[in-house]
Amino acid sequence: EAGVTQSPTHLIKTRGQQATLRCSPISGHTSVYWYQQALGLGLQFLLWYDEGEERNRGNFPPRFSGRQFPNYSSELNVNALELEDSALYLCASSWVTENIQYFGAGTRLSVL
Amino acid sequence: GEDVEQSLFLSVREGDSSVINCTYTDSSSTYLYWYKQEPGAGLQLLTYIFSNMDMKQDQRLTVLLNKKDKHLSLRIADTQTGDSAIYFCAEREDTDKLIFGTGTRLQVFP
Lengths: 112, 110
What we know:
A: mainly beta; four-stranded antiparallel β-sheet; B: mainly beta
């Protein structure tokens, strides 16, 4: 069974550009979570989607947004990129009733 | 507020036991987790414990939970060089998000 897959593996952008990161959950999982792992800041919760709806949001500005598609895959969009957005972005999925989040390998975003 | 704390580094000799400690603050946490992160990789779930349990053992891994002191530990028996990684503890909030600790870098030397 395939795990959580994220694409691209690496993404290089310049300040002010937009980045789109993608995540495919484990088959059968309906919840998708996004986390940011920035140097010196640790792992921080960004967004939670379930059944196509945003259920919870972390302490991030509105330029961080996303969506979940009918097939439960998800996109994270970061607008007006800033240097401090450089980080590893991790996606996780779960059954909403299982209480266990399984993570993908992440997308490393570098903002120059 | 929510805060999960871990020591930053641990160095052990191959074959010895490793004990990684974690303290958390949210007494309402229902599940607590241990994840492993190898260089350049995502998070691998190692084990988890429900808050009404004191201990859980899974092969070389033993998790101890002291709810009174809000203290969680992960013991790795017979530590191997392949165990070298960063270990994160995490607590689950009611809203489903995970709150992670700062991570403990485990270095195993021959």
